[in-house]
Amino acid sequence: MLRSSFHQHMEDVKAQITNLGAEVLQQFDRAIEAFEKSDLDLMNTIIEYDTKINEYELQINNEVFQLIARQQPVATDLRNLIAAMKIAGDLERVGDLTVDMAKVSKRIDKASYAEKKQELLQMAGDARKMMKESLESFRTKNLIVAQKMAALDDKVDAQFGHFIKGLFKNGTTEQDAEQLTQLAFIARYIERIADYATNVAEWVIYESNGEHFDLN
User: Fold this and answer.
1) Rounded CA gap, 29 and 128, in Å?
2) What is the DSSP letter of 39?
3) Contact 181, 113 (CB under 8 A)
4) To which protein family does this belong (predicted)?
5) CA–CA separation, 190 and 11 (whole Å)
6) What pLDDT does 50 receive?
7) What is the mean pLDDT of the chain?
8) H or E segment to which residue 171 belongs
9) Using CA atoms, how far apart are residues 75 and 9, in angstroms rounded to an integer?
């Protein structure tokens, strides 16, 4: 009875993480759209919704703590619970980064730097693909998909490095420097989101075999 109850609660926790992942991915989509369209209302929506993301993570953590206290899980079950908390934490941090993107996007001139913005949108699309696939690997326990994150993360890292090097290669005015610095912040947030997508994949692998591989 206890084991059956534990596994049912564990499935509930995983469903909550899947829902949290969907919410965070939607926040990222909003952040990309708000940046692309300079949509102030959407930026404010992202910022305001962050409290919901925080509540999701807190709910998952409380559920995990209750399971540990009441069910006394064995080693394999405890590993699943640890992975659940870690993934929830990583997803919450992605949510924070989408808020950072929204806040910085407010300070970027709508009409300027079209070429640089396009580079960032390409980078954001690749990071979004990573988030989507890492969440899918969690949902389906697909280790092959999880292991792909290393190569995808390398691609985003290379894009980030190329973007930063190209930002200030020409002389800039004080106004240009301010705007280019904000674009650099956006690039950094996108690169960090890709890192957290990779972290999620690492925890999927850990949950499966008990070994923690560094995919970054």
Assistant:
1) 8
2) -
3) no
4) Belongs to the PhoU family.
5) 31
6) 96
7) 91
8) none
9) 17
Q: What length does the chain have? A: 216
Q: How many domains is the chain built from?
A: 1
Backbone CA torsion sign across 43, 44, 45, 50: positive
Contact 201, 141 (CB under 8 A): no
Left, alpha or beta for 212 (phi > 0: left; psi -120 to 50: alpha)? beta
Sorted by sequence, the CB contacts under 8 Å of residue 171 that are 6+ apart come out as none
Residue 215 placed within a domain = no
Domain that holds residue 72: 2-209
Cα distance between residue 58 and residue 89, in whole Å: 9
Look at the block and give the residue holding tokens 């909550």. Answer: 16
pLDDT tens for the chain, 216 residues: list them.
456 677 888 899 999 999 999 999 999 999 999 999 999 999 999 999 999 999 999 999 999 998 888 877 777 888 889 999 999 999 999 999 999 999 999 999 887 788 899 999 999 999 999 999 999 999 999 999 999 999 999 999 999 999 999 887 766 666 678 888 999 999 999 999 999 999 999 999 998 887 776 766
3-state DSSP helix/strand/coil % of the chain, to nearest 5: 85, 0, 15
Number of H helices, E strands in the chain: 7, 0
Which pair of structure tokens corresponds to residue 17?
């993480």
| Token digits of residue 134 | 């890492």
| Position 216 in a domain | no
Task: Find, among 158, 18, 31, 155, the residue nearest to 105 by Cα.
Answer: 31
